[in-house]
Amino acid sequence: MTDAERLTRLEERYLHLQRHTQEQDKAMLELAEELARLKQELVLLRAQSGGSPGAGGDEAPADERPPHY
Predict the structure, then answer these.
(1) What does residue 4 show for φ and ψ, rounded to 5 degrees?
(2) If we measure between CA atoms, which residue out of 25, 3, 6 comes closest to residue 14?
(3) pLDDT of residue 27
(4) Phi-psi category of 51—alpha, beta or left, where left has phi over 0 and alpha has psi -120 to 50?
């Protein structure tokens, strides 16, 4: 293998790695945007359901008697 062939192969590998890095960066940006959107949606859903993450709006208090009593 001549030096020119070796250099050509190295350049091809380098370009492949550059392209792969750009694709990964794009995918990470898309995931970050989706995560931000989902966080905002979660905040809105929690606000609609009563605020606190553990509070269920349909649950009866522990000391309240069931309706069949």
Answers:
(1) -65, -45
(2) 6
(3) 98
(4) left
Would you place residue 60 in the very low, low, confident or very high pLDDT band (cuts 50, 70, 90)?
Answer: low
pLDDT tens for 15-56 read: 999 999 999 999 999 999 999 999 999 999 999 998 665 555
Concatenated DSSP letters for the chain? Answer: --HHHHHHHHHHHHHHHHHHHHHHHHHHHHHHHHHHHHHHHHHHHHHHHTSSTT--TTPPPTTSPPTT-
Burial 17-31 (b: 16+ CB within 10 A, else e): eeeeeeeeeeeeeee
